[in-house]
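Summarise this fold before class:
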Amino acid sequence: MKKTVPVIAAVLLMAGLRFPAAYAADEPDISAKAAVVVSADTGEVVFSRNSGEKLPMASTTKIMTTLLCIESGGLDVPFVVDSDAIHVEGSSMGLQEGDIVTKRALCCGMLLPSGNDAANAAAVRISGSIDKFAELMNSRAQEMGLSKTYFVTPSGLEGEGHGSSAYDMAILASEALRYDVFRDICSSESMKVEFGDPPYPRWLKNTNKLLSMYGGTYGVKTGFTDEAGRCLVSACERDGKNLVCVTLNDRNDWNDHMAMYDFAFGQVHTFEPDIPQDIELPLAGGSSDTIKAKAQELPAPVTSVGEEELSYTVISPPFIYAPVNAGDKLAELSISCRGREIRRIPLYAAENAAYKNAPAKKKKSGRKLFGGRSCR
């Protein structure tokens, strides 16, 4: 592992935005009840304070709600919001009865002004009720291995047992950030959306002040309730390194996140996965039983704490059927770290593969005759 010599330097302030010029030498002294910094790629922990303790996480809950909204598809299909769903206390995107909206607008309403009305409207649209949507949230959390997480509401308003850990929230955010639409929304300080009866354009402002305070920040979500205190999930990129930071119950979250990033970026490095070469896949109907495949696109560098061994899994149908032309997409290569998929890249045929015993072309009476081919 290449080590970076920590240096303490003056903080550069330009137009209110902090651009860290060096790494902090010592672990930061933070006020959060629980905190963690992880690699956005591998999930490796760079810094941790009580990161496995289950605590209420307030509106950072909406990371999961937005993720499920995106995964449900149909983001630009207009519909009328459920009247009961939007009658909820707390922060709002401004929905009213009879409003026509899209799921994309609801995602903006959840991630920027932290609309509880948007979260409820999305939940009812997707699952038909708040309770059924909570079941979907918990099922997705289980798929991701979020062992300390339990959802009761889509908005983050307290319910019995509703809570998560700082580490779980970091993994959840890393998963959500794989979607470009999620990252585009949560990294925006404001966005113009359309909704209403009839829909008309209006601006929504992001509650995440870290976007304008610390260079490289591109998300993710704020949260606050009396029980949870101030909660913040953020993501930051520097020199190709991507980190996710979470604090729960933190009265000084903006400064704590900046201090944790100053420290954590000095502890990580990037490396390019050494992907397998000359992968052979089963071939049916060809002159050979296998066909060679390769990745023509190299995966992006991975942010890591140590040189962790990665695992590779080929995702493909049981057989590839001849004929195949070199360059055809055949399968995908899944790259995982500690059992968690971090990349998936396409695999292409490295050679041609004709039918087995394909009839040869013959000349007869000045005409070309071709053997018949069967479709597979």
